[in-house]
């Protein structure tokens, strides 16, 4: 089957899915049978299945996040292929199909294409608007999210709890504290939507990120429902950002009581101790994690080039172009230093001397993936990276310098959000 036919069959799959949600299982079997017949496209189809399961409301537990990360890179091409077929087949005004495209484009980093699809819709419904709002939240465009919400309300649409989750999330990722507080207040008083635990975790995140840790704690205490791990996790993340080791320790202990098997909590706690120079405590937490048989999932970065997804881990030497990548990275870091880049070694966890620390942090997977992109992508093309974990502060700062020195747009999707780096600045405004 050539690419054109294959794309067309994908668009048919999409159509079937949209019109027979009740037959989702049957549909999945159909996708699987296509996978078997066209095994060379399996990766993209798996991605497609992942997208569908997300749209369906559940996440396919058989596909872990690290695998999904690499699929997102292929999403743009898939979305483009499907988009073309939909236009040709005359289904471009179908709201359900357009909504699937809005989501696919936003998830693949193409917020502009996602907007275009939305603006072409004559009568966008609530779900299409929710998808656009979710895209804004994902990319940290808080003001645009607020605008679209206001427009919806003006048109008489009744916002539901899902919309408020995305809206609060968008406010949180853009530092819109006043707006976030206002929407949290009016969601129940004006729109009759009682805050759920998700809304509380967005608010704790919003307050915590902006340094209002005390207010975040008060909000948790006032909750009429039991705070879950997401709520405490948001507070713990805020403690890390603002280096509040004392409160962070208490929150982590509470989290570990309810879930002693979550390696992320040990990592955050250990990172906080390391950042505060409390090496003995950091080692103790690491040892405890090891004793309990828990392992941190390794940080990986993915970049797509010529229909292939390239995966990098820290200090990766397995790539065929490894020697070139490391040489170019060293050269680039030297240029960055001359421009004022200072490695943020507090993100290295071990108690080693400064030189070794810098060497370790310079080989993070994000940096290797960016340099690979610089080597293979034609000048002017943006470099799109997907990370399975949250980007560290040093790689964030390095990506800003790289975008400036190399005059390249760099887009990084980490486990939390998108970062668009241009001319030495990030779209998150360093608020992440
Ligand atoms: Zn890093
Ligand atoms: Zn950023």
UniProtKB/TrEMBL annotation:
Domain of life, source organism: Eukaryota
Transferase recorded as keyword: no
One Pfam entry name: E_motif
InterPro entries from the UniProt entry: DYW_dom (IPR032867), E2_motif (IPR046849), E_motif (IPR046848), PPR_At4g14850-like_plant (IPR046960), PPR_rpt (IPR002885), TPR-like_helical_dom_sf (IPR011990)
One biological process term in Gene Ontology: RNA modification
Keyword Signal: yes
Identification of the protein by name: DYW domain-containing protein
Organism (species): Protea cynaroides
């Amino acid at each position: 089957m050539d690419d054109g036919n294959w794309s067309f069959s994908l668009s048919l799959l999409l159509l079937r899915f949209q019109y027979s949600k009740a037959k989702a299982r049957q549909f999945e079997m159909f996708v699987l049978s296509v996978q078997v017949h066209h095994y060379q496209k399996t990766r993209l189809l798996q991605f497609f299945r992942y997208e569908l399961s997300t749209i369906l409301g559940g996440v396919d537990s058989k596909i872990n996040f690290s695998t999904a990360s690499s699929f997102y890179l292929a999403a743009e091409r898939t979305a483009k292929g499907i988009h073309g077929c939909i236009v040709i087949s005359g289904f471009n005004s179908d709201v359900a199909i357009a909504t699937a495209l809005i989501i696919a484009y936003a998830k693949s980093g193409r917020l502009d294409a996602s907007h275009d699809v939305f603006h072409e819709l004559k009568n966008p419904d609530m779900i299409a608007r929710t998808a656009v709002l979710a895209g804004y939240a994902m990319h940290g465009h808080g003001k645009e999210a607020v605008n679209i919400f206001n427009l919806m309300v003006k048109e008489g649409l009744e916002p539901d709890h899902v919309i408020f989750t995305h809206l609060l999330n968008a406010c949180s990722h853009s530092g819109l504290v006043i707006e976030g507080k206002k929407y949290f207040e009016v969601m129940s008083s004006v729109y009759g939507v009682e805050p759920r635990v998700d809304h509380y975790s967005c608010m704790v995140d919003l307050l915590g990120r902006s340094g209002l840790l005390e207010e975040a704690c008060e909000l948790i205490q006032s909750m009429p429902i039991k705070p879950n791990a997401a709520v405490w996790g948001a507070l713990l993340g805020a403690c890390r950002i603002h280096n509040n080791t004392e409160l962070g320790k208490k929150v982590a202990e509470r989290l570990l009581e309810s879930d002693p098997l979550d390696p992320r909590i040990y990592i955050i706690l250990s990172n906080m101790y390391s950042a505060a120079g409390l090496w003995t405590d950091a080692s103790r937490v690491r040892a405890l994690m090891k004793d309990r048989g828990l392992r941190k999932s390794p940080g990986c970065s993915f970049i797509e080039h010529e229909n292939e997804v390239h995966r990098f881990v820290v200090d990766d030497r397995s790539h065929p172009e490894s020697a070139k990548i490391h040489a170019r990275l060293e050269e680039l870091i030297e240029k960055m230093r001359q421009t004022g880049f200072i490695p943020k070694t507090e993100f290295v966890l071990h108690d080693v001397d400064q030189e070794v620390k810098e060497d370790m942090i310079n080989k993070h997977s994000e940096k290797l993936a960016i340099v690979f992109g610089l080597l293979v992508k034609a000048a002017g093309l943006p470099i799109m990276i997907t990370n399975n974990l949250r980007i560290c502060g040093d790689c964030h700062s390095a990506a800003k310098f790289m975008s400036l020195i190399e005059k390249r747009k760099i887009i990084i999707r980490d486990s939390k959000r998108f970062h668009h780096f241009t001319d030495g600045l990030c779209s998150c405004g360093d608020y992440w």
